[in-house]
Give the backbone structure.
Amino acid sequence: MSSRIEQIIEEIEEFVDSCKFQPLSSTKIVVNKEELEELLRELRMKTPDEIKRYQKIISNKDAILEDAQSKADSIIADAQAQAQKIVSESEVMQIAMAQSNQLIEQTNAQAQEILDKATEDSNNIRMSAIRYTDEMLENLEKIMSHTIDAAGTKYNNFINSIQSCYDIVSKNRMELSPQAAPSSYTTAEPSPEEEAE
């Protein structure tokens, strides 16, 4: 079952795929800013909850180990009690001792197996949670990077388009009155943003 974060990422991907291309372009699309911001806002809100959920799973490691240790101790205690009972009630002390030692060995092996399995399970849970959280953050990072790049490109295209229109208007005015070239006909000074480029 996929998490809400995965669902939101899929929705963002579907949203981007559904956007129309800009006129005369096969790579640039027109994005509804409000819809994309709403999806990103929900993603931002859900990410901490998802990370907390997996941190809680990781923190359960100690509880799993403690439960396994408790079960192992209980099994050993029962085996020792049963061995003691066999020894005390048996008329053949040697047989009783051998049986009790064998039972304790089996019990210790079973307890160790439980502890090993619990440790392995808790480590697997922890690694899966870390890997999943990292994948979610990686996807979020890619989406945010793509959004930043797209916004920067659109801004630069907008400035270039305005500058081009301004140049055409100035040129047309010069052609209308070539003898008089007042200072207002000169090309506009570059904006601070253009100088920074």
